[in-house]
Design goal:
99 residues, alpha+beta, 23% strand, globular
């Protein structure tokens, strides 16, 4: 994959009111249909994938395809769905989903 551009806008997948240190995942949509992911605790370690693979992953998360990796999934909250929708909306609009 290509080098990670320095001017990416990172979107933090964290509760809106949470100011704590995380760790959280951050996502940035770059040029050439590339999507970059990193953890707040190790921002230099960046994983890069394609937009097609990212879209397939987020749709799988929304469909519950990965729920078997999580014990005691809380079905009463929709925070994860909200975060995915924020990311998709931000990308469609070319803006950041988080301030």
């Amino acid at each position: 994959m290509a080098d990670t551009p320095a001017d990416l806008t990172w979107i933090r997948a964290a509760p809106e009111d949470d100011e704590g240190p995380g760790p959280w995942i951050e996502v940035a949509f770059g040029p050439d249909e590339l999507v970059h992911l990193r953890e707040t605790g190790d921002p230099a370690n960046i994983v890069t994938t394609t937009r097609v693979k990212w879209d397939a992953f987020t749709k799988g998360v929304q469909a519950g395809e990965f729920d078997h990796f999580i014990e005691d999934v809380d079905s009463d909250t929709d925070t994860d769905t909200d975060i995915c929708e924020d990311i998709e909306t931000a990308d469609d609009e070319g803006t950041s989903a988080r301030p």
